[in-house]
Amino acid sequence: EVQLMESGGGLVQPGGSLRLSCAASGFTFSDYWMSWVRQTAGKGLEWVANINQGGSEKHYVDSVKGRFTISRDNAQNSLYLQMNSLRAEDTAVYYCARDAGSSGWFYWGQGTQVTVSS
Amino acid sequence: DVVMTQSPLSLPVTLGQPASISCRSSQSLVYSDGNTYLTWFQQRPGQSPRRLLYKVSNRDSGVPDRFSGSGSGTDFTLKISRVEAEDVGVYYCMQGTHWPHTFGQGTKLEIK
Prior knowledge:
Distance between the termini of chain A: 40 Å
Radius of gyration of chain A: 13 Å
Number of strands of chain B: 11
Mean pLDDT of chain B: 97
Mean pLDDT of chain A: 96
Helix content of chain A: under 10%
Number of strands of chain A: 11
Oligomer: heterodimer
Low-confidence stretches of chain A: none
């Protein structure tokens, strides 16, 4: 059974940093592109970043470029999102998801809440 | 970015009655490979999104056949033939043809 479990969310002040982790199981992690997708109360669902199987290719939505870094450790079956210079508008539930190419994501984690507030 | 516009945003439906959600894109979703990458997700209260349909009309495993998708180009529709209580939630369309992939605002389906 495919499982994705996020951790690392919490309350952080504007300008602060946070690192999210996603532990994957039930499939060969190194065979798949992986994504982070977030959900805010105001803007709904938004794809944030994705990374290829080996970690050499990464893509980001414009609003997080230069501030967020996606990475992975295939030996540990783990996906990460390093978030720096956090802003109030980054407040969201962050989901880890296994890419299905241009057809979105079939497998999602349960999400981790990130709140940016002073 | 491609803008996805859903309507209505709120959809009260009587149990057993049909429901229909419209999704329009600001650009054609036909990709160079001939496919149209329009996906529908369901999000039940307190749960993560669940993919229902991909490439306009392909149902995912475990999705009841009362859910169907149609459309082409920039105009798409999700239909539920007979709404059941478990269908309550928010429905999102998403385009995967252009980067970045973008979602509609969501349509909240509730039982009247």
